[in-house]
Amino acid sequence: MSVLLIAEHNNKEVRPFTYNAITAASQINEDLHVLVLGYQADDVAKSLSEVSNVKKVIHVDNEIYENYIAENYTSAIIKHAENYSHIVSSANTFGKNLMPRIAALLDTSQVSDIIKVISEDTFLRPIYAGNAFATVKSNDKKKCVTIRPTSFDPADKSGGSAEITKSDPAEASPSTKFLKKEEVKSDRPELGTARIVISGGRGMQNGENFKLISDIADKLNAAIGASRAAVDAGYITNDHQVGQTGKVVVPDLYIAVGISGAIQHLAGMKESKVIVAINKDGEAPIFSVADYGLEADLFEALPQFLSELNKLNTIQK
Amino acid sequence: MKILVAVKRVIDYNVQIRVKEDGSGVVTDNVKMSTNPPDDNAIEEAVKIKEAGKAKEIVAITIGEEKAQETVRKALAVGADRGIHVKVDNVIEPLAVSKILKKIVEKENPDLVFMGKQAIDDDCNQTGQMLAALLNWPQATFASKIEVKDNALEVTREIDEGLETIEVNVPAIVTCDLRLNEPRYASLPNIMKAKKKPIEQINASDLGVDINPRIEQIKVEEPPKRKAGIKVASVEELVQKLKNEAKVI
Prior knowledge:
The structure holds 2 protein chains of 2 kinds.
Chain A: E1 2-6, H1 17-28, E2 32-38, H2 42-49, E3 54-61, H3 70-81, E4 84-90, H4 93-105, E5 111-114, E6 116-117, E7 122-127, E8 132-138, E9 143-147, E10 163-166, E11 176-183, E12 196-200, H5 210-220, E13 223-226, H6 228-232, E14 253-257, H7 263-266, E15 274-279, E16 292-295, H8 298-311
Parallel strand pairs in A: 1-2, 1-4, 2-3, 3-10, 4-9, 5-9, 12-13, 12-14, 14-15, 15-16
Antiparallel strand pairs in A: 6-7, 7-8
Helix pairs in contact in A: 3-4, 5-8
Chain B: E1 2-6, E2 9-11, E3 33-35, H1 37-51, E4 57-64, H2 69-78, E5 82-87, H3 94-108, E6 112-116, H4 127-135, E7 139-149, E8 152-159, E9 162-169, E10 172-176, H5 188-194, E11 199-203, E12 215-221, E13 230-232, H6 235-245
Parallel strand pairs in B: 1-4, 1-6, 4-5, 5-11, 6-10, 7-10
Antiparallel strand pairs in B: 2-3, 7-8, 8-9
Helix pairs in contact in B: 2-5, 3-4
């Protein structure tokens, strides 16, 4: 049977992790259909129909899908679930909120946050903040799977010509009301998909000092991350948090500044290709995962780092 | 209002996890165990709501082996009124946990069920949402702020893009983020008092729900280790290495 992927989007554009989830879903089964639940989201349906691995797009357009109300999404997905062997979404806050609600109604034990598809029913997933990898086999007839987006490459956005079919909305929940969304707008790349991430921790001492990080981020076209300690202390907003309970990032270059490297932070960044740690405590655990460690006071090192970058003739973007 | 708070006993967050050599799981013998951290936030929030005069009773529940009771006892010491311990011998999946919780909810009739957003052992992040589905209740996940209104909650949720605020009618399920509050420590007199608070024991097998595993754990292994790196002596050397050796800038 086929795989149904739940698209994440903002009614105008497809959110980037949907493309990573498409890659993983098509590894489960090539007959991949994408469900778009949205409001005036024709552009989203069209974009997804052009993705190379997508065989069919089901588009349900109604104002009850303007925001992600898991209750409303779930009733629509359940309506379509019958025709599919797998229901799949990305394991970010979108999919984490939604998928278990679907799984419970299908009486399925969900497989969360997979990092590898071994076969149609067997997957690899990290447990204990990535300190162990479990190979698990789902024996449920219908499978609900969420995918760690950074473990799969994004699908090719062109080359496909899937048919788009319209479908009717399902019941809306009277018990949940969307009030508002405070989205932090930034010209920088998204943390989850950036090629370079520079993160600050408790060592930054306050929010103003993050300017030292943002100056370098501007120079490198990097996203800005943070440890939980820095977010808890109010230096920076929650959407920057990297770690077990925040975001998982796998950039080409991760620069950890003033971050000691608790297990929970390492869970969110230790798969990065190259890791740099700047910390004045030479014994900090972050150095155990760093390819390049610099034992230094960050308030001296960061301005020097910027001036060294300024000396370079070219910087990769 | 009456609030049911679900707590789980897990390996303490500071423990370095070791994988068993036979690949059957991770080492749990003689390892420090604690309450799952965001479950502490769930208890704290319930206690704060009660202190504000908006809740009458807090019931703490755990599901697990005999020793799981410790987590309920801890919840009682910080302000829960009574406890429930549903005994199971093996580790069960979130779907089974939510089926058991549904039975308890039907018996206890709470207005709210709180729990942590995710357990730090299996990292599943499923139970609250599953329970909400089985009860057909609204869900507010990853809560970092809760405001109690008349027969509703206004909940601020931490999402990838920032924050989202929703309103859910009571009865509702809330899963708590670590930033919801600062969990208090139990005082010694309260720990002593908690020893006298009742904990009802129930055998999972008496609840008539299917808690058999649906997922086979084939093996558990160590993640690939990173190659040891080097220390650089200066910022200049660091930038040169990044440019010419790692070729990432």
